[in-house]
Amino acid sequence: IGAVHGLAPAPSMEALTLAPVPWLSTSEADAIINSGWWNQELQQSDPHDICGWYGISCNDAGSITKISHPYIKEGIQLATLKLSVFKDLERPEVWESGLDGTIPPEIGNLQKLTYLDLSWNSLHGTLPISITKLTKLEWFDISNNFINGEIPTELGYLSSLKIPHRLAEKVPPFPPSGIQMDISYNNLKGPIPNGFPASSLIGNKDVCSDNSYIQTLLHFKPCPAHCKYLVIVLPILVFLIMTFLLLVYLRHIRLAIKKKHAKKAVMTKNGDLFCIWNYDGSIAYEDIIRATEDYDMKYCIGTGAYGSVYKAQLPSGKVGALKKLHGFEAEVPAFDESFRNEVKVLSEIKHRHFVKLHGFCLHRRIMFLIFEYLEKGSLFSVLFDDVEAMELDWRKRHCTCSVIS
């Protein structure tokens, strides 16, 4: 088919292919817009084309690589720009921009950073250790701010830093350290770390040095004696304090275990046992003897085939029923195991119809049990007392029999 006169020939498929258009990461765009750093009214480019904004440069993939001196509103916090989303950022140059606040630790996530200039702002706080992760950094300038605290010795690992030209003429003529940056005129304090470029610290009045040449050339004051030994003394002091606290804790645990065991049983040298629980752990054998006046008959409230029961008012003010077994029973060796088994069973039974066992004494010459004292006595005494038996009507007797069964 021939060409139609007056019409342009149809374009080829190659001609229809569009040139690639840079795109911007949504997270980066959101971070820029939400930061409040830029006055969007002053932007002459398309407000949706952030790569065209003043102070922003992007790579071919549309990712931001450079941020330089934007129209930042006075007093804006540095942390308002979410730095962690700018994975390809290489050069943030925001000197004399009115930035306030601290340097966020997230700055260490900018692994492609080669140039960082935050000088002549109002930044304060300490230097984050995360800066040491910036292994590609070639320029680091945070001079003329209000950065405080001691100089992190970890900054010595940034061996690729270049020294600022305006400080080069003040570098001492001896082999310099590879760590060179500009953090001058801040509020840093403490000794200059070994190998650290002293020339980058001028203007920090509380920075000191033990090098007399540096003291004379850069007007640093000598370090107090305590600063020299702080690195050695402080770890030792922390170790001693931690050891002391550990010993106190172990002693507390030991006393708690000892007290717990004391409530269960007190073992004497002769293998005798005396134990009081649920009443007062400080009650001693002598208190029991004193409470019954050495088992005086006036305290006896009952006698049976295996022993006698005494009413004993303990030092705590509580009243207990002390069942003292007959002496001949205590002298029988086989009865020792039987007594222990009985105590174990009575102490483990938890039932509202059983009299509570509060303690016991196991001795070669004497054995007794301490029970909860019941004001109305035993069932035996009630049934064989004419007056009290009248109070125990048939309904109560039926209920009692049901419980016993």
TrEMBL record:
GO biological process: defense response
Main location per the UniProt record: membrane
Family stated for the protein in its record: Belongs to the polygalacturonase-inhibiting protein family.
EC code(s) of this entry: 2.7.11.1
InterPro entries registered for this protein in UniProt: Kinase-like_dom_sf, Leu-rich_rpt, LRR_dom_sf, Prot_kinase_dom, Ser_Thr_Kinases_DiverseReg
Subcellular location: Membrane; Secreted, Cell wall
Catalytic activity entry: L-seryl-[protein] + ATP = O-phospho-L-seryl-[protein] + ADP + H(+); L-threonyl-[protein] + ATP = O-phospho-L-threonyl-[protein] + ADP + H(+)
A Pfam match: Pkinase
GO CC, alphabetical: membrane
Residues annotated as domain Protein kinase: 295-405
PROSITE patterns: PROTEIN_KINASE_DOM
Listed name of the protein: non-specific serine/threonine protein kinase
Record keywords, A-Z: ATP-binding, Cell wall, Disulfide bond, Kinase, Leucine-rich repeat, Membrane, Nucleotide-binding, Plant defense, Receptor, Repeat, Secreted, Serine/threonine-protein kinase, Signal, Transferase, Transmembrane, Transmembrane helix
Membrane topology category: Peripheral membrane protein
Source taxon at top rank: Eukaryota
Stretches of the chain forming a coiled coil according to its record: none
Any one Gene Ontology molecular-function term assigned to this protein's record: ATP binding
Transmembrane regions: 229-250
